[in-house]
Amino acid sequence: MGRLLIITGFSGSGKDTVIENLLIQKTSFRRLVTCADRAPRKGEVHGVHYYFVSSEEMDRMHALGELVEKPLMYGTSRKATPKKEFRRVIEEDVSLIWRIESSLAAHVASGHFFDEQFAPEDSTILKRSSTVVFLTAKKHELASRRKRRDKEKYNPKEFAKRDFQDKRILAKHGSFFKNIVENREGEIDATVEAVIKLLK
Fold this sequence. Notes:
This protein is α/β, with parallel strands linked by helices.
């Protein structure tokens, strides 16, 4: 069967960078594709970057139980994850990387998420094939990356709220996060290697 790698962590911990490097080094892995209720931007491909659907189609999918979460607004569009992506792991032996926020990752790591979303047999397979990795970094490195990424839009108060929420999740559900990897500045290769070892 395929594998499901779930990447989560603090903002600025380098989740996207780690995923990009994993996709290069672990060619058997692909990015799990979510739905977005907007038109594709220049260079974006349907089924590769997102499944581009209308707002009405996304609402229909949610009503029919075809999504694993309620569609939420991110930026200028709503996004949600279709159940059919997880069936690729079960039925097609495809290995996927899923980038999610920490509260959902804790729910996944606990095993309850799959029990709620899938039939018992499928849930068992998904739990067995899943690895949840929580990425961290030192406080000053997180701040430096956020400033570099957001430039003039950088808002330390907003990140303080996010960090507080993530720390609460770690305090409450930390026992579920068995795989915590520190992504040190300038050591992306070592971070990726650590994640690959966890997969093995």
